[in-house]
Protein 1
Amino acid sequence: MRLMLCAVVVCGLVLAQAPAPAVLSPRAQLLEQGLREAKTGGLLVVDGPKGEWKAGIDALNKDPDWVDLDLHVAYYNTKASELESLLQQKYLTGPRPQWVLFGEGGRLVASGGAVPTGASLAKAAQEGGIQSTVQLLRDFARRNPDHLQARQGLLSELNQKAVRKTILRLGGKTEPLRPADERWDFAKYQKERDAKEEAKEREQQQKEDKPQVQLKPEEDQAIWGELADLVGRCFRSGDWIEMNSWGLSPAEEAMHSPLMQEVCRAAVPEVERALGRNPESWEHWRLWLDLTRTYGGKPIRPLLDSLLPLPTRSARDWPPHAVKEAYVKDARKRKDWTGIRDLLLPGIEAGRLWESIQGKTTYQTQIKTDGKVQEIPETGDAWRATFEPLAEALIWLGEGSKADELVRSYYADHPWSGLPQRAQALALRCGQPGLAAQWGALGGTSAAGK
């Protein structure tokens, strides 16, 4: 009896001395829940206080072994300290920085305290039996061949993987990882997106007359072969009509794939027949534009002429909104300045008439962060899609004064910072140095009396 009492006392003392598990922060609790529910594997990284590993983790996107592995990375930087205790409790890791390679359900596969390489991660993933999203969807689609949602999900994942591998093969620029603990900043996102759109526009102008680099047959098969085969089967079977375009639409990088070009050419007539039955289908138009882009584009005017819009539609409603930007691009290539003016100007003039009746009313969405209103920056979307091509058309049609009034009034209402430079470059391309000087000065001291 005495021995039993002693054992109970000793056990109680040991339990009393054992440290209680640390209370997890909401961020750590959310991550723990995500790990428990994980269906595929991934890499979890908690960096040090100075972001010591950021460059090394970003470099994984350029590592063929890691890209081929096709696993998600959750990188934590500024809030990494909140997750340190979770990793120590769950995976027995050391102090930050640390990485953990986990499988389904968050099971531990490997971990370490030094920046991992693609080769070491690939070896650990293979030995640990980790399945990627592509593998999981591929197996599911094979077992359920009539499951269109599974096929669509697989198409989307294969597309993304092919894009990453193509960029890597052609030496393109890879995006740095966005930290998982970085708060979503809409204003920052808008600025970054607008900068990318501008860079993309400049790049397209420089490459307009240059042929696209094409992958070699063996590279093409390895990178795009499975996707091309699956897209082709969807169109040949007719299943594509029940699927969303986001799964079937090839990315821009498919322009480098002869296999994808061949599949897309064969698919376009099917989409055109569907447009004949439903001329204003946003899904069909987006798919048609993406498919034709893959092999260098196709004139849009003949297709539009073959379609029958509803008799209730006004001229301003045709072509459909989904395809207006593509129509304008096509018309600029053909120098159809009258067509551009007749398409875009009536809508702008109608908007001005409405403003004259109603008065100018500005609607602005406010986004608050910690009680403070975030400033939402102006973007160049409307300028690139509508006002620039219209101003160009007016200049070539000898209506320079109308083009000047258009640019000035647009800038007064939407003072996008990139407009003066873009408008100046446009005027110079059109041989109008006087307009170029005036438009380049918009927003400056010399434009104070405009």
Note: The domain at 28-131 is CATH 3.40.30.10 (Glutaredoxin).
Protein 2
Amino acid sequence: MVKVFFFIIAGIIALSMVLATSYFWTSQTVYITPESGEPVAVADVMYDVEFVRIHDGTKEVKPEGVFFQISITAVNMRDEPTNLSGGQFILVDGNGITHIAQFLDTGPDELWYEKIEHGVAVTRTTQFDIKYDKDEQYQIIVKPLKEQKTNEWGKVCVKNCG
């Protein structure tokens, strides 16, 4: 009777280890890193991310450092519409510090949140408040939205690559 109980407990432990390992590997973030200057596909959306300029903000909004502006062209390759949000983009500086996108409401090209239809390309800009060092490398992480259901993230070098 003790042997049967031991085998049942050992089976439960082994099964829980298999399930935990499976969950661990399926929930790990996978970074897709294209060659410098190349677009990256995340959740069936192709993103072309490029550095635009450094600027000091608007009359209403001034950065603590400077604004590092990027341009994003997104093409929806999914069969159904998807969304594009400024919260999908994170800047990583040369020290590994992450910065979130800032919405300045500078015009119609400013990225906030919008729907993209199948096959349509949308180009928007956003910026990050950073302490800029002209010699540091800067990368953009492209996160999928929850609705896109993937663990793949893009990582694109946009300044001082190589």
Note: The longest strand covers residues 45-55.
